[in-house]
Design a protein that fits this description.
The chain is mainly alpha-helical. Helices cover 79% and strands 0% of the residues. The chain has one domain. The protein has eight helices and no strands.
Length: 190
């Protein structure tokens, strides 16, 4: 078995996602929900979105116009941002077991990944190497490590920073990404 596709994919994904909006979303979501549920939702999203990209990534761009994805993403992010800023939850909130934790992290991460540089990277890597299994395994391992670190960091923040500050920070992050999505839909590159 040739390890080049695996190693190359792992390196590209790990380098490009470290500190990226997807990892920041996992950190932010794990300040509100149990880290394990956020991790499960985030990994399901990554496996689905990037897994499908490996097999049929070009078709995704033809089925769903990227402007529509960007607009929908902007609405979701701005909605999450406003909700976070206006939420009146108590200062001592435990991470929720919530039945929506997996769905929230899945939908957030899946939307962020559509049209992202890593989605395009796995398409190119799979096309270049013709080794979808090795590309998939390299991508999956990179995300396991990055999302794992992200949810651990986010869940620990609850013990170090008051909930109100985290809510304001996460609200601002969501609003910023919502604005970035809107600007990209309008054709403004950052």
């Amino acid at each position: 078995m040739d390890f080049a596709p695996f190693l190359c994919t792992f390196g590209v994904i790990a380098a490009s996602e470290l500190g990226d909006k997807t990892q920041i979303a996992a950190i932010t979501l794990s300040t509100r929900y149990r880290a394990s549920l956020v991790f499960i939702g985030a990994m399901l999203a990554m496996v689905l979105v990037d897994g499908v990209s490996i097999l049929a990534g070009v078709a995704i761009g033809n089925i769903i116009p990227m402007q529509l994805v960007g607009l929908f993403g902007a609405i979701i992010f701005i909605g999450f941002g406003i909700y976070s800023l206006l939420s009146k939850e108590s200062e001592k909130v435990k991470a929720k077991k919530g039945k929506f934790a997996v769905l929230a992290s899945f939908s957030m991460v899946a939307l962020m990944e559509l049209g992202d540089k890593t989605q395009l990277a796995v398409i190119a890597l799979a096309a270049n190497y013709g080794a979808p299994l090795q590309v998939f395994l390299g991508m999956a391992l990179a995300y396991v490590l990055l999302m794992g670190v992200g949810v651990i960091v986010g869940s620990r923040l609850l013990k170090l920073v008051p909930q109100r500050h985290l809510r304001i920070f996460s609200g601002a992050i969501f609003l910023i990404f919502g604005a970035i999505f809107l600007l990209s839909v309008a054709g403004v590159s950052l």
